[in-house]
From TrEMBL:
This is Radical SAM protein. Keywords: 4Fe-4S, Iron, Iron-sulfur, Metal-binding, S-adenosyl-L-methionine. It comes from the Bacteria. Residues 172-420 form the Radical SAM core domain.
Length: 425
């Protein structure tokens, strides 16, 4: 498994002598054969600016950074693949913060690129190669012409065409999971937020947050256009907005109006679930699916990353328990990072959290962050480092009824729909 690196012009090479290494947290580690899979379709290679790759002399075991002028290389994985290791690198400028991506270790092996990853879901629906950009442009033209006064379609058209966001693209393709953003405000100050950053954060947000409060009729139009098949999903809570439950009144009114017209498809919310009373109202209005973002089931780690305003991890747990008790199909958007998520204390806490809340699905999502900044922010490790592959095995063994995936699923055999219909009337 040869080291992959780039020269100063961005040309990528495999080193003829050195083996590739990886990082787990802040430690340089050797890659294991069982951690490697061929570079998945839809993955891309990415330079790590202001860094040097670190390789290993296979004869002596010595770890060697490449000379200045070279750059480390990582892979950016499509959804459906969970990163097991970071690239092996050292920064040449320790003050520089890497752009907000989920860098994965990559090596050259058997004539091709291999990455340290595990397939944890079927990537078909979220593979960018399966999104026809011409069809998206056609859908944008059709729906913005049909609803010329709807500011949501105008906003989503930039997400679909400018950012090539797959969820907003689905909104214009009328397929799978589509998005309907509603909130410009948030009750958390997430470190590395992808839509809004303080001026002194040192990060550049890859997306622009919406800057208006939509009307109920605008929301309803988007929802009704999308909810036309039994397996369609419309989701509040997108990367281009804040916390959707801060606009609970809008969401509740929209759900009630939509469900008075059609029972087709599923209504989902992607939320931090900190506003328990707001979540209760949204659940009672007829919510089908709820995905809660979390990075840890430990208070100190959770608080360091999310910087919650007026709520706690206990509030999140309360929301999940209530939603689950009302038949909502609940999941977590689990932001994972090698060398942190696989700490012994993190794994134990998450297993107990899942059992207490009745979660149905864990969506493994690679945390897009500058590694050094994140590791400086959070509490140090208290126990053994288990490894990401072992962590996944523990989840599957300890939580046999819980699905391990990477994105929102339709409940099996209409489970949540039946329960919600009973609770609604």
């Amino acid at each position: 498994m040869h080291l992959v690196y780039a020269d100063g012009q961005g040309n990528v090479y495999d080193h003829p002598e050195l083996h590739g290494l990886a990082r787990s947290g802040d430690m340089i580690v050797e890659l294991l054969e069982e951690e490697l899979i061929p570079l998945p379709e839809g993955a891309t290679l990415s330079l790590l600016p202001n860094s040097r790759a670190v390789g290993m002399n296979p004869s002596t075991g010595e770890m060697l950074p490449l000379p200045e002028g070279s750059q480390a290389v990582g892979a950016l994985l499509p959804q459906g693949y969970t990163r097991l290791c970071l690239p092996g690198y050292v920064k040449t400028d320790k003050s520089y913060k890497l752009p907000l991506f989920g860098y994965t270790a990559v090596v050259w092996k058997d004539g091709g690129f291999y990455v340290a990853a595990e397939k944890t879901d079927d990537p078909f629906k979220w593979n960018p190669l399966n999104c026809d950009r011409a069809a998206v442009r056609s859908g944008v033209a059709a729906l913005t012409a049909k609803y010329p006064e709807n500011r949501l379609y105008e906003h989503l058209s930039n997400c679909a065409l400018g950012y090539e966001c797959l969820t907003s693209s689905n909104t214009f393709l009328n397929r799978w999971e589509g998005g309907v953003p509603v909130s410009y405000s948030c009750n958390a100050g997430c470190f590395g937020c992808i839509s809004e950053q303080p001026d002194d954060s040192g990060f550049v947000s890859p997306q622009t947050r919406m800057n208006f409060r939509p009307r109920v009729d605008e929301i309803v139009q988007v929802m009704l256009e999308h909810l036309k098949t039994p397996e369609s999903i419309i989701s509040f809570g997108q990367g281009c907005e804040g916390e959707p439950s801060t606009q609970a009144k809008l969401i509740i009114e929209a759900i009630r109006e939509v469900r008075s017209i059609t029972d087709m498809g599923y209504i989902n919310i992607n939320t931090n679930a900190g506003l328990s009373d707001h979540i209760r109202g949204i659940v009672d209005a007829g919510l089908d699916l709820m995905r809660v973002s979390t990075i840890s089931a430990l208070d100190d780690h959770y608080n360091a990353y999310y910087k919650p305003r007026g709520y706690s991890l206990a509030s999140v747990e309360k929301s999940l328990k209530y939603a689950s008790s009302q038949g909502v199909y609940t999941s977590i958007n689990y932001l994972v990072f090698p060398g942190v998520t696989d700490r012994e204390e993190e794994v134990e806490a998450m297993v107990e959290f899942v059992k207490r809340t009745g979660l149905k699905l864990i969506q493994m999502r690679n945390l897009n962050i500058d590694p050094e900044s994140y590791l400086e922010l959070i509490p140090p490790s208290q126990g053994e480092l288990l490894g990401m592959k072992t962590m996944l095995d523990i989840f599957r063994e300890e939580l046999p009824e819980v699905v391990i995936g990477s994105y929102t699923h339709v409940p099996p055999a209409g489970e949540a729909r039946t329960k919600r219909a009973i609770a609604r009337f």
